[in-house]
Specification:
Number of domains: 2
Number of strands: 17
Strand order of the largest sheet: 4-3-2-5-1-6-7-8
Shape: globular
CATH class of the largest domain: Alpha Beta
Largest sheet: 8 strands, mixed
Oligomer: single chain
Low-confidence stretches: none
Distance between the termini: 41 Å
Strand content: 15-25%
Amino acid sequence: MDYQAALKYMEGVSWLGSRPGLGRISELLERLGRPQDAVKAVHVAGTNGKGSVSALLRCALTASGLKTGLYISPHLLRENERMSIDGEDISDGDFARAVTAIAAAAEGMAESCTEFELYTAAALLYFAASGCDIAVLETGLGGRLDATNVINRPECAVITNIGLDHTDVLGDSVELIAAEKAGIFKGGRAAAYDLPENVRAVLRAAAERTGTRLSFADFGQLRSIYDGADGQRFACRGREYEISLLGEHQLYNAATALEAIEQLRSAGWDIPYEAVRRGFAAARWPARFERVLTGPDFVIDGGHNPQCLAATAAALRRYYPDTRRVLLFGALADKDWRGMARLLIPVADEFVCATPCSPRALPAEALAEFLRAAGCRATACGAIEEAVSRAYERARPDGMACCLGSLYMAGAARAAAGRLKRCV
């Protein structure tokens, strides 16, 4: 099949949604010859920060001379973004070839795979065929029953920040959620975010049970040197680094990535300090408090739960302390959108509401009504492009606009901002 046919095939199973379990993808990979056996991996799980930590690790490993794959979800604009090697997204041709092989292998299976399982199989097939030295794999949901957990023992398992999200699937406490995330421990080495003691205890117990050598990042060793809208410079363990990612929480993500790098070094991987420094400086992670327009500034952030939005609100206060803020806000109906809204109300002068590109989306007008009832000025827009234009116009001449609340909205907003830039 060609690229368009491959996309159509993948989209044809999207209605199946998320169904945790490893049986289907294990069977599919057996039919494909077990490509996961040829992939050495860094496996990243957590509630927030997975993407940023994964991006920093990928760049550091690439800068060390290693052919490095990266698997993420969801994509912002094109499906190809989900799997890349050394920063280059999979080509249309390679994508079509991987999906063709998967479709043939999946034929006749008693139970159909989900879309995420198919993408995971495609990524593993692509990384194995391309001869990657190592791949960074981001979990989709949880860890223990996530499709990515079909891999063998990872070179390093990484746990990022943990909070309450997907409680209907993972559990209604941070301890239960941590236990699910720790399901990626299989022995070997692991590194984790500087987490509260109640969460650490859960991870330590899982590490002891599986014979995994676990260490935690120490945020007390972080020292901010420079923090501006163009990036951050910081020191950790006596060495200095630069990142373009904004917000104090990104320093914590960087420290977690550095802890994982220490674990990889102890496992025998050659990852020089200078390579890490270059990799971190080169790392880009779209839609994570990303400034895409100036005059006025337009920022896009894909935060989609209260823990994320608390960090975004702090970043708005830090980088735009005396600026009028127009927030383009949209959310999925099955998220804690009311809790998210309450965190944003104190940092917003005005809201523009939009409906994310998802069948699970909360209608813009319902969100606007909630905000108006809370005493906010809120306008509902139909299309994302209209919302971006409205928010940007309302931010002029001396304000700023920020799109936030859902990754399903961030990609479309980023594209609309690019078109708007060519018009202003």
